[in-house]
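Quick illustration, no need to memorize.
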Amino acid sequence: MKTGKLTLLFHLVLKNLQWIFAFLSILLIIHLLPFFSLYYDHLTLLTWQHLRMIFLAMPPAIFLGVGSGILIYRSQPRASIVLGFASIMITVPSIALFGAMIPFLAPLGAGVGTVPAVIALILYSQLPIIRNTYVGLRDISPSILRAARGMGLSPIHILLRIRLPLAAPVILSGIRTAVVLGVGVAAVAAYIGGGGLGRWIFGGIRRTYPDMMLAGALVVSLLAISLDLLLAQLQKILTSKGVGS
């Protein structure tokens, strides 16, 4: 009887998890309002530093990831090698990757700071972008491709006019994943002087200052959720256009 009640309670919690999370977040925001009011200028600066790392990393990450996906979508052996390398890269702990880059970037005067953080973000973003580009380009209806060939379109025209437009929502889904992942990795960049909201997280831990640590973690979470929702709307628009056409 007691086990049944616990199971029912567990399912009830899971069913309403998003509302519980929202309620706890509101309570946390209310608790941290005095802290945010006191350090508002610092919050604005750190948030901008955090976003700047994302904005600097995403264009080259998208270019490299989508380009790699285009190069491998017609070759299974190449796809296995590239996706395998990207899978290994994403499993490397971010702090270890930052440390590994220092000897190579230090002679250039960029061993710590924003540069290694941006490079790390680019590398970590590759797996979701490459994988989704690869899947999106391959997962095209054969009847559509036959019709395109019947119209005399060359492979490059089929890629540009058929495959890429139809794969756009899938590719954007990979970019969404990469951006959310990047927000988390950018927080760790504070460990090597990259700035961003991670300074509050690590500073709070170092000083045993829970409010500072919680404020940093909360804003990072809200930033990731906001960017994900924004890209989700863009993905919905692209999908709607694809269906409508």
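The mean pLDDT is 86.
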